[in-house]
## 1
Amino acid sequence: MTLNIFEKRIKAWNEKYPPLSPEILRKINKLVEQYDKTQQVEKDSKVLSITDGTKLVREFKGRRYTVLVLQDGYEFNGSKYKSLSAVANKITGTRWNGKKFFGVA
């Protein structure tokens, strides 16, 4: 049996990253079902809220950056930040919307 391109990508993802939690998988499935019915994506930040302990990863200019989501902020390189925008600004040296920079908006 040969794998199609999507199955190959999923397999590579699963080998590289830990599995998603059942809660996140349910939310993703809910979004996919909604899209299948309406052909539109509802942009509700509450649908995919970021929970404590989540690691956000972003590659920027050839370097990988990881941020840990805390109950009251974010941890990056051993320092605590109040917002993702502050972390994105630290990484890039310019003003960024942190949620967009990390792909969670």
## 2
Amino acid sequence: MFDNIRGIITFEAVAPEPEAFVNMLRESPVSVSDIRLESGKIYGEVYRADFDEVKRTAERLGAQICVHSKKGGVFTVRKYRRRTGMLIGLVLAFAMVVYLSNVVMIVEVYGNETLTDKQVISLLRDQGIRIGAFIPSVDLREAERRIVSSSDDIAWVGLRSKGCKIQAEISEIGEFPNIVPTSVPCNIVSSRDAQIVEIKNVHMGMLVRMLHDGVKKGDLLISGTVDDGKGGVYFAHSMGEVIGRYTEKAVFRQAFEDERFDYGEKTVRKKLCFFGLEIPLYIGKNNFGNYEYDEETRYAELWGIKFPVGIMTAEYKTYDIVPVSYSPEQAKAILEDKISLYEHNFFDGEDITVIDKEVFFSEDSGEAKAVVIYTLESDIGVTREIMAKQPS
């Protein structure tokens, strides 16, 4: 490999005394290899830098010498040395590769469930982490700390840089049920005041309440302290479902004098995103007053790799806040819509069955009110650990 970098010349010579010429080459300080005599001509290989010394040796003996062939990278470079455009292109290509390897081209988000990818990416953008950002200028550890401290929904975030890719792993703050491990003895108690309408799937523990019994919140339903029938007891992890029927009240209000959003036409603006720069593709300013905003950016993509060049489409939906008056009939219709939305959000898809509901409408000088009494059925049992004293 080093020989190819230095360059090798194969020469061809005709000498009056071939043997004398060959002997002088072998005794000279230059490195000549593969010397051979073919059809009265002398051939050999020498480094490019030593060829002038071989020519001087040939002149002293009256020999004629010429270049038979050349090989090596140095000759390839010399061949294109006058093509400055190609040289500049190679330099620019190398500089581009170095630059792109240190620029954020892909942002990946993992672990988020409640938060959307857009919300997480917006938090990252606030810390300077965006498509086109220069990675060495971003302090990932400091960005992690600031994201956690600025968001009430994120418990932990891990940021990693892999080449031109930034990976963000999110752990959200959530409300987790107090679940007692199955290896721990526990009772099942009532979570609310209810009447037992069904008992099913009692796998472990001793049933304390019977069908149609009324219970209050905290009453024991299935005991984890079980009589073994021989005068002793043992502790179990109670498992079972106790379906209770209970009532819940929900109150909804609607003022007769209210405000609503009066939406206007939607306006779309486009920008060219080029390595973090946003170049407007429109003329004028965005003087919209009150508006709802949404944006989407589509980056150029090749073989699954996104490049920091793309088009951002911004959508502005203007609105005015206008006063509105409702008649009692209109207010009642709005209340009915609120009730339907409430039931969809809290009862649909849940293990809760609506048995009955009573709606009581009323109104005064300022608002209409709806009081809804729901009769519901669901599993009312919750586990509570048994704090048993261990034998000494």
## 3
Amino acid sequence: MRDTYETPLNSRYASKEMQKIFSPDRKFTTWRKLWVALAESEMEMGLPVTQKQVDQLREHIEDVDYDLARQYEQKTRHDVMAHVLAYGDQCPEARGVIHLGATSCYVTDNADILMLRDAIALTRTKILEVLRRLKKFALQYRALPTLGLTHLQPAQLTTVGKRACLWMQDLWMDLQEIDFAFDSLRLLGNRGATGTQESFLKLFDGDGSKVDELEARIAHKMGMEKVFPVSGQTYPRKLDSRVLGALAGVAQSAYKFAQDLRLLQSFREVEEPFESGQIGSSAMAYKRNPMRSERICALARHVMALTQDAQMTAATQWFERTLDDSANRRLSLPEAFLSIDAVLELYANIASAMVVYPATIIKRVQENLPFMATEAILMECVRLGGDRQTLHERIRVHSQEAARRMKAEGAENDLMERIAADDAFPIDRGQLTQLLQPSRYTGRATEQVERFVRDTIDPVLEGTQERAMGEILV
């Protein structure tokens, strides 16, 4: 349909894998799996549910009749009851036991947790892939000197690979938050209207141990072993805030990387991939715009903004529940994951094929290196017998004049020529050239890259830290 809005997150940005996790099929078949788990567990514990009923429910997990459910929802104005009734029409033998003892959040919230689990696992996998690609880049360019910038002004030298380690370290920190959010996941369980499990207690004639066993059986069948210790009708919306906060951290890191790359591309030092037939501008045919990096920034900004939705929803839940969370969560949770998924797809794409221009990088280094080498020159001249205070003042004067000419006249940096021609300095042009080797001014950058990759990144990439999506047993 071309006359109806569709989200660009589906049509342009997010992967099919992430779209599938938040699809109607995944949502409503998970509801049905929860109803099967409930009915089967109730049967196993002696409640009036038969194997024939459970088998019929299981047989129709996948063939959701969306048209029928839509018709029921138009009448009932209740999405869960609409699907209960539609499921019951497909499973007439089991109609009377579907949803026995449960309230709506039994399916809605437990299903949401299972989708969050799978979405976090997929996000984590994609972060690891970005790290793999950045690792290769960092090691390849670990010793290539480049102009380090503070305040976006030339500072001291670093290396291209060392800068990539800063990007990787951000993502490494994000993995810690992602893992914490993943480990925080709990099923809501079967809690009833206000979280007291009162309806299930009635089913089991007041036997609380059977209520606990029912909950444990359901959790196991759904691939989860933990439930929240207490709840209202819903699981605590604080969890949504925690999860979106972790995604926002990834967004911040990706934004930082993409913004750095946009600046580097403007310096013509490092570029994102640019295909042979790609058009940078509809007007300026020569343009090579960093459109992928700009898209990362655009989508990452959306993820960061969505955290406010989750925070406000968690803050405004009244007592045991209020329904003003529902419409907001239908938007904020999927959109945050779809957006961060698109960000990580772009990040991985860029990281695998960044184009580095060593000649331009070294040219910019050489333009600024004479200023950075002045301390080394001063110490060498003092070693050769010069007067430190006199030489310091001469360097100050020469540096100021060289910088003035560079800015006011567009002249080359002639600081070394000035020093070489100044009789106060007991050093010749050849000795000065030796002091202008860029590798002398990158400190421990190369070593830091190798150590960071070995001690921090490799254990994450080579370890058994992949978080698998849970297996639903029903």
